[in-house]
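## Example record

The block below lists the input lines for one assembly entry, exactly as stored, with component labels intact.
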Amino acid sequence: MLEEMLAEAKRAQKLLAVSDAAHRNRALLAMATALSDRYEEVLAANRGDLAQAEATGLQGARLKRLELSEGKLQQLVDGLQTVVRLPDPLGMGLGLRQLNNGLRLEQVRVPLGVIGLIFESRPGVAVEAAGLTVKSGNAIILRGGHEALRTNTVLVALWREALGEASLPPAAIQLVASPDREYARALMHLDGLDLLIPRGGSGLIQTVVQEASVPVIETGVGNCHLYVDRHADLAMAVRILRDGKVGNPAVCNALETVLVHQRVAPEFLTMAAEALKADGVTWHGDPETCRLVPDAVAASEADWATEYLSLDLASRVVEDLEEALQHIGRYGSGHSEAIVTRDYETGRRFVDWVDAAAVYWNASTRFTDGFQYGLGAEVGISTQKLHARGPMGLEALTTTKTVAWGNGQTRDL
Amino acid sequence: MLEEMLAEAKRAQKLLAVSDAAHRNRALLAMATALSDRYEEVLAANRGDLAQAEATGLQGARLKRLELSEGKLQQLVDGLQTVVRLPDPLGMGLGLRQLNNGLRLEQVRVPLGVIGLIFESRPGVAVEAAGLTVKSGNAIILRGGHEALRTNTVLVALWREALGEASLPPAAIQLVASPDREYARALMHLDGLDLLIPRGGSGLIQTVVQEASVPVIETGVGNCHLYVDRHADLAMAVRILRDGKVGNPAVCNALETVLVHQRVAPEFLTMAAEALKADGVTWHGDPETCRLVPDAVAASEADWATEYLSLDLASRVVEDLEEALQHIGRYGSGHSEAIVTRDYETGRRFVDWVDAAAVYWNASTRFTDGFQYGLGAEVGISTQKLHARGPMGLEALTTTKTVAWGNGQTRDL
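Predicted structure tokens for the full assembly:
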């Protein structure tokens, strides 16, 4: 089944690659209109998924992620409209060089080809990722969670109609509609797939990264730190800590560990413990933290390495900036790291030496996000260094090609 | 041993990353001076390698690749000087976005970190790759062929002196000096290595791509095609064919297969057979080629898929452009592909539809090369789509980091 899907998607992608931006944008606008006009169809399917999920015992954050609403659909519509307004990534020349012999070399941006996306419950991903895919001239094979199958089926049907309205081939968007896990595995070994992106929990991501024989971009695991320097504005540091830990603990740009300079630890930790008390945060502290924060539990080695994604917070008092940098170098996942300090030399050293997709100076890590970055949406947040780093938008879905315009040039004759 | 090397290299790399371009350029110039002034040391070591290689039976192209000469050293010196003149890749900002709340997001180019390079006999690679590495603020672990060990040892010693002269840490360039194959394998699994590049024959490349658990960029396999269209200037097509097949058959941008439109096949193949006769080219042809080219041997399926790297040439007569595109889509390795035609529509369709790092219209595939592209050198030619495609210069050795300059911004509070 997947081989056929890939062949169909490849044929469709070739047409998207040479289509003009106006047609691709028209498909996104048609999808935006469909989501606005026919939201009841989408929500009805979503209610079906929710009912079945509840019946099988799904609850809490996982159930929440599955749910769509008029408000969420409106956000997806806004996202599509933002992507429409972005420049065509395929229209950009990346430089031209003319050799002495007259050969003209032009580097151009071209689509990657066919992209696979394995994602978990959130069905909005099917709208965002496909929107970026179509705009950048690619095709996509979507493999969502089985609990969102009804919703994803309706969304993909709307997408295919939208492509048809824009005179583009509907086969550019494919849905693996079987809940069988074997298909996710087969996608990881689907020869000819140009890129596979796993989007979801760390279990899914690690499985894909380790198993796949097709090209993969690792996304989303965020063991993010806040370092509160001795020269920090402590009230600001508390706000940034609370935003990072409490704002939305289930996302990858949430904070997991706070590192505090020993000089300000007594004052800061007392303030922070007080501020986070009503939020129900559990502190996992080193001995010094445990001495200062009431009800803190002793942290073990595992706490430093854990992405809690919950109202748990690891806390460690450090001797100085260097110890903080070493801690981050050892346990950080290369996602987002923050420092609060008023001291220029300290801030500059942190920004220069921390090796991560995003480094924040006096701001919350929660800004690492495709919408905040102006990408309109994101297909994921890359935590690797190759190809793309941080939130991935249109450009991350392209590669380059060098076109050489000659009139008979040879090199050795 | 490798873990220690990596730790040393990482420490050195951190210093290179924050060094200014003037110091990095000074190291390259010091190496260029050392190669000019002390060429006798290098050539003496190389003679040692050559003598031993000959004694163990190495001959032909492999022996040739191992050999350095004053001329070759001069080319390496020129290459280093070109790289010095290129702009600092770390000095480039990639855009700044200020959010409504005043948070300033700046995307900057940063080094990848520590790069591993496994290469075969050519010792010049140790000069070129290390030059690009140092200029781009990275460290490198070199693992060359055992037959070039004396030469590589001297070259790395000169590099380390050059780094010292520029007040940069010599540990940024490391050489795996043991001929034991276990070290190459260990490099493929060296946790913390930021990128591993295999440079050599397809056996080496396939082993690294399939085995490595560290990030890899696939390089160098070039099953390159020339399509001679019915509207081709046939004399030009013969020159381009001869340049691609005979100029330097042992390299990845050499031609392996010629596809000829049926209408011009009798005339073109007769001309081409005549032109390539004195060069000793063996034709592996489809039935139609065999009918037209004296002494052609029948091609089998394997011939279409083979990168000969020798004076062998596969040849097939095709019905039209579409059949040529299908052939290239099926057997091409995504390296370099060429068309000769006077017809605009045909050329445009070839350029748009062929999916390869480089596509040539009326020019030889032999131009896919870091020097020709103005990169000064290359660490390899990527045949994959992610991260880098085609000749890899300074930019391919960088990634990005987003630095956010705030004054207390939070997202959800």
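The first strand of chain A starts at residue 93 and ends at 98. The CA atoms of residues 39 and 385 of chain A lie 39 Å apart.
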